[in-house]
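[Archive record]
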Amino acid sequence: MFFSSFLSPSPFTSLLILILCIAGVDFVYTTPAKIGQGYKLISIDKSPDGGLIGHLRVKEKNNIYGPDIPNLQLYVKHETEGRLRIHITDAEQQRWEIPYKLLQRNTPPSLKQNVGRSRKNLFSVAESEYSGSELIFNYKNDPFNFFVTRKSNGQTLFNSTSDDSDPYSNLVFKDQYLEISTKLPKDASLYGLGENTQPHGIKIYPNDPYTLYTNDVSALNLNVDLYGSHPMYMDLRNVNGEANAHAVLLLNSNGMDVFYRGDSLTYKVIGGVLDFYFFSGPTPLAVVDQYTSFIGRPAPMPYWSFGFHQCRWGYHNLSVIEDVVENYNKAQIPLDVIWNDDDHMDGKKDFTLNPVNYPRPELIAFLEKIHARGMKYIVIVDPGIGVNNTYGVYQRGIANDVFIKYEGKPYLAQVWPGAVNFPDFLNPNTVEWWGDEIRRFHELVPVDGLWIDMNEVSNFCSGLCTIPEGRICPNGTGPGWICCLDCKNITSTRWDDPPYKINASGIQAPVGYKTIATSAVHYNGAREYDAHSIYGFSQSIATHKALQGLEGKRPFILSRSTFVGSGHYAAHWTGDNKATWDDLRYSISTMLNFGLFGVPMVGSDICGFYPAPTEELCNRWIEVGAFYPFSRDHANYYSPRQELYQWASVAESARNALGMRYKLLPYFYTLNYEAHTIGAPIARPLFFCFPNLQELYDVSTQFLVGSSVMVSPVLEQGKKEVKALFPPGTWYNLFDMTKAIVTKGLKYFTLDAPINVVNVHVYQNAIIPMQHGGMISKEARMTPFTIVVTFPSGMNVVEAKGNLFLDDDELPEMKLGNGYSTYIDFHATTSNGTVKLWSEVQEGKFALDKGWFIEKVIVLGTNDTDGAFEINVDGQPIEDISKVQFSTSEIKFIDSLEDEGDKRKSMMIDIHGLELPLGKNFVMSWKI
C-alpha cells in the first residue's frame, strides 16, 4: 500500500513542490560541469592476493560539495574468469560499505597508512594493464583513469577518461559526493538501473532521469526512484551482426543520480565507496549467471507459488475471504493462494488478529479447510511497530533494544497503526527478536508465507516527531496516510541536508522526506543516510531466516523494497500501479528488468491496483498476468471489487490463460530450478535467446517464458488483433498446435486476438513438459504428463531438447542428491527417416515414488508416421504396445514461408495411451 496512491501523479508532485518552495528548498539545482582535476596515481604494486593495490592523491583541492578526500586506495582484482572488481576508498579512514555479512563478498586489503610511499613501486610505464581470462584492467597515471577492455575482441567496456570536451569530470571523491563517468559507444543498448517505471520500454533511454534511492512513490509515477535500488546495468553491443553483453555493478547503497547521455554515463553518489564489479558475459544469460553467482542465486520458490494468487486491501472480514475462495471455485478459475492485506490485524498492528472480523477459531477452521485442499494463506507485515505499551510485540522490542535510534531514543514515525518505531535489521538482536515474533504469530495463525510491505522504509511524516498531547493520533476519521504527529524538520546536519541533492521523487525532495530521518542511527553507529536503501533487503534476510527456522520449510516472502541480492531471499511485486493500458504495458518492462536484477519471481498487480479497471482491460491483463512468474490479482481499499469472476468475459479469459499456465506448471517450476542454479530469468526479453538480432533489443511488448515460449499479448484498447514480431524459425501456437508460423527472417505477423484469446507460441527445437492442469497446483501436479516436441518445419535432420525438474517443494533447498528430487533431460532427433525421443534421468526414485508418468507425446513439424514404433524402458523393449495409439493432423501455416517453393507438408503426431514412468530412462522411435 502507498499512502498517496489515490492521488494522481500531477497533484502529488505539485503539492510536494509547493511544500518545498514554501520551505525555501531550491529544487532547480545546476550541477557544475567540471569538478577539480581528478587524482594522480602515485604508487601501485601487487597485492598479496594477486591483485593490484594502488594509492591516489588529489591533484587540486576544491570545496564544491565539500572538501576532497586527499588520499585514496585503489584495489583491483580478477575475482573469477568472468568477474573483475575495482574498489576505490579513502586510504586513511574506514568508510561506509554494505555490511560484508549482509552481502557476502571478498574483503579488500586493509587500508595502508603509508600513502606517501616511494615511487619505486610505480610501474615504469605511463600506461599499463592487468589482464584476466577475459577482462583487462588498463590505467593511466596522471590524471588517474582506468579502462576495462574485453580480451577476445578488444572492445572497451568502461572508460573513465574525461576529455576537455566532455560534460563530466575526472574522478571526484569527497565525503558526500563521488563522481565517475564512462564513455560509451552510441550504438550500445543499456538495460537496468532500477527500480523505476520506464515509459520507453526495457532499454535505458538517453537523458531520462535515473535516481536510485528507495522511496514509497507509487509505480504509476514515471522515471522516478521507486521501491528498489539496483545500481547495475547490462550493456549489449552488436558489431557486424555479432553480439556481446557485459554488466557493470556499482555496489553502493547511498543515494545516487545516474546520467546517461547516449555516449556516456555518469554516477553522482552521495556517500560510500566506489566498488565496481564487471561481468564479462558474453551472452545475456551468461551475464546474469555471473551476476547472480556474485550477489546470490535466486531463492527457490515452492511449487504452489507458481499458481494464481488473489488479494485485496479491503477484505473486511473472514466471510468475505471465504466467499472469494468459493466464488473462484464456482467460476472454475484456478486459485492457489488467498491473501490478506492489513484487514486481518487488530488496529493495523503486526502479528495480531482482529478479534471481531477475524476471530481466531473461525480463521483456524478456514485455514484447515483450504490447507486440506492444498491452498495457501499469506498475510502482510509492515516494518513499523506500533508504539503501544499494551502491545506485546512493542514491549518485547523495547526490552530487546531493537529499534533505530535518534539521539539515543527510538526514532518515532507514523504508518498505518499510528505512531511506530522501526526495527533495525542490521542489529543481530533485532533479527532474533523478529524471528521470535514470527514464530509467535505462526503459532497464532499458521500462515504459509509473509508479505513485507512499506519497507523502503515508508513514513507518513518527515523529520523529528513526538506524539501529540490532548488528541488522538490517528483519529480514525481521515485518510490513514495523513501525518498527525507533531513534527519539525531536521536540516541542521549534513546527513539530513547533504551538499549534493539527488533527484529524489523526481523533484530533489529532501533525502529524509516521508522516510526515516537520515541522521538517525543504526547498529554500530551506521547512519540511515548510508543504510537507507538496504532496509528492505535486511528485512528480507531476517524474515527468510525466521520462516526457514519455523518448520524447516522453503520460505515464500514477497517484498516491495529490494536491493542488490534481494532475489536470494524474496520475490517482488512491482508496487502500486494504475489500472490503465499504459500500466499494463509498463508491467512487461519492469518484470523483465527484475530478471536482470536476479529477482526472477516477479509480477505486477493484475488489473491494476487502482482505480477500477474496465472489463476489457482486466481481460487483457489476466492474459498477460497469467504468464508473469508471480501471478496475483490485487486491488486497493477504495476500488470496486475486481476478482476475475466479477465479469463473465474476464472469467472466460482467466480460465483460458490460467488454464494454460497450470498446464505449464512443470515448465515454470523447471525454470525456477534454472533460476536458482544459474540465475536465468524466468521471463526474458526476446533478445536473450536471439542476441544477434539487433531489431529485438528494444522489444518491450512481447516476452519469453524461458527460452521457448513467447507471449504476444494485446496491450491496446479496442484491439482484436496483435502485431507480433517473430524471430526466424518455426513457432507453434500453444493453444492450437496445428497452427504455426514459419519465417526465414525477422518478421511481423498480424494475429487474430479476440477478447478471450492470448497468442502464445512455442519455438522450434524445444521439448516442453506439460500436465493436465487443474483448479489448484497440488491437484494439477499429480496428473499425467504430456511431452511436446517441436521440430523446425521442413527439416530432414534436426534435434530438440528440454528438461524437467521435480522435487519435494517443501524442502528449503532445491537441489539434486537429497533423495527427494528428480531431474530429466529430454532429447529428440529426426535422421535417416527415423524420429527418436529419449530421456536421461538423474535420481529417478523420487519421481517413481510419486507415480508420475508420461501418457502422451506430441511431436510437431515432422512427416507422417510410417510405423516401426518401438519403446525401450531402462534398456528393456516393451513388447505389448497395443494400448498405444497414433493420430496425425496436418499443421496449418499462417502467412508461411516467403519462398513458397520451400513449403513442405508438416504434421502433428499425437502418441497417446502411453504409461512411461518419468523416473526411468526411455527410448521411443518410429519411421516417418
Q: What stands out?
A: The radius of gyration is 29 Å. The longest strand covers residues 821-831. The mean pLDDT is 93. The CA atoms of residues 791 and 861 lie 5 Å apart.
